Amino acid sequence: MIKIIVALSVFTLAVYCAPLGWKSAEEAKSEMTAAGISSQAADGIIRIAEDYSTLRPSGGGSDRVAARAAFHKFLSALETYIKTQSPADQAAYQSFIANKGTF
């Protein structure tokens, strides 16, 4: 379960923290909705990623403790959010991150 959450979290953070050429929020949302996640749930996932992307260490420095703390806060917020969604969205989310975990 944790591996799946980590895989989606990495994907979601990559959408917002990646250099140009990576998927935009709209592309990520489109991919999630194509996997069966409702538009509302996808918007919530993206909103959480946007909120936590600001916790990324600035200046390219590598403060591993701060980065790890931010990442764990993100995972916790994402897990809490997914639990509030419909069973169909939860199942689609699990399927989506299982497929993303194979990259």
UniProtKB/TrEMBL annotation:
Signal peptide start-end: 1-17
Residues annotated as transmembrane: none
Keyword terms of this UniProt record: Signal
A Pfam family: DUF4473
Source superkingdom: Eukaryota
Alphabetical list of InterPro entries matching this protein: DUF4473 (IPR027913)
Record has Ion transport as a keyword: no
Entry annotated with the keyword Cytoplasm: no
Protein name: Secreted protein
Organism: Caenorhabditis tropicalis
